[in-house]
Amino acid sequence: MKILHTIHTMFSEKHTLSLTQDILCSRLRCLVKLLERGQVPVADLKKNLEHAASVLEYMCTEETRQPVDPENELDDIKTDSVPVEVRDWLTFTFTQQKGLVLTRKEEKQRFRSIVHAVQAGIFVERMYRRNSNLTSLIYPPNVITALKHVDMWSFDVFALNEASGNHALKFVFYDLLTRYNLINFFKIPVSALVSFVDSLEVGYSTHKNPYHNLVHAADVTQTLHYLLIKTGILHWLNELEIFAVLFAAAIHDYEHTGTTNNFHIQTRSDTALLYNDRAVQENHHISATYRLLQREDDKNIFLNLSKDEWRELRSLVVDMVLATDMSCHFQQIKGMKNLMLQPDKPKALSLLLHTADISHPAKHWGLHHRWTAFLLEEFFRQGDKEAELGLPFSPLCDRKSTMVAQSQIGKVQNCSICSFELTELNGKSLKQNDDIKVKREPFILFHDTARGEEKSGVDISGFKSTWNQEIHNNRETWKGLAATGAYASISLWGVLKTEV
């Protein structure tokens, strides 16, 4: 057992490495590609690559080199500390047997070559895993095409989800962290990031919700990104705050049950009892996400944050996600004017996420119409459960009597008010409070120039114009449908929900 333990320790903490020279060279080439793309610190990586290359070159020429006295050179390798059985096994396994009887010096020389090979293998494996983690996200061509429009208000998250095979959240979150250079800035292990988002997507899919699912999370994350760059709020934030905003958007409905907080309270669910009927699901979204990060190290994207950074980011995330509780909506609207007089970053960011969360009435009709279908179908499913339990129907949850078109007119109006106040808040805050603005203009997003994206900048007037025009168009469309009696019955609503 001691022999096996020694072998295990020398090769890896998790599995035995038996890398050939070809594999080592291949992985070094991968690291070079990472260096060319600027995804790792150039100076450090270059230094380490040169060292690894020199070791590999030595390995390749070792067999033809004349023996030299290895006594002094072996001091740092400490071959005598390795059990004889292990040395024999390594020599037998990793060298060609020629039937020759080796002298003590030749044995040490041969073993030194093997140790160097093992050291190089472990070194390159760790370097490769640290920088590319063997799982760097590969963008399919259709995904690249879809993400070219990620800076646009008309971004079609459904098209991205189809192109990515139902992984819209993974690609949006990964792409935005890359664009803001947050992966490098916070030294986020890529393998942990990919594994974490994979788990997020599983959690979002647990209850098979028509609306509160991974596509909604991706949509909110992309919308929040748009708000950051177009309103100029981006220039008010440091890297940790940007990370917190994107993270909060990605997790804000994690493991959503497809029912409202009030449904949890009325049915006395375990979640409602756990959180004492206060922001029931929002508390769960945060808690479940952080338990996921803490429970599984291979998903811990906060691994390299300092304690202070971790606490600050968590505080922001908690504030933002709790504020997505719709019962706080009118309270947030009412508090906006105070924010204009005395800026408060956590409250402003909470409002930003809340705005992105309810923004689909301000998207073009093709997107808004589709989101409405999904949301009302989710409401109707809750109504079906309420009927089974003998509970009264919650608003908009009775699929037989809900007036779809009429219900959407007021919803669109509320969204419009929220958006207008948000942009006004942002403009005044940036102009009147330069002391809290991050001094780094122009902020450069780390776009992949090979994809041909155009640079995006602050455009508050254009943002308000686009948003208000879509609000107006959608409101008028719903009014027209209400006037003609469309979507007034379940049979007509069935046409709308065919995409669900």
From TrEMBL:
It catalyses: a nucleoside 3',5'-cyclic phosphate + H2O = a nucleoside 5'-phosphate + H(+); 3',5'-cyclic GMP + H2O = GMP + H(+); 3',5'-cyclic AMP + H2O = AMP + H(+). It is an enzyme of class 3 (hydrolase). The keyword Aminoacyl-tRNA synthetase does not apply. Its cofactor is a divalent metal cation. Zn(2+) 2 binds at D253. Keywords: cAMP, cGMP, Hydrolase, Metal-binding. Residues 135-485 form the PDEase domain. The active site is at H212 (proton donor). Coiled coil: none annotated. Zn(2+) 1 binds at H216, H252, D253, D357. One of its GO terms (molecular function) is 3',5'-cyclic-AMP phosphodiesterase activity. One of its GO terms (biological process) is signal transduction. Binds 2 divalent metal cations per subunit. Site 1 may preferentially bind zinc ions, while site 2 has a preference for magnesium and/or manganese ions. SUPFAM superfamilies: HD-domain/PDEase-like. AMP binds at H212, N213, L214, V215, H216, D253, D357, Q408. Its EC number is 3.1.4.-. Belongs to the cyclic nucleotide phosphodiesterase family. PDE1 subfamily. This is Phosphodiesterase. It comes from Oryzias melastigma (Marine medaka).
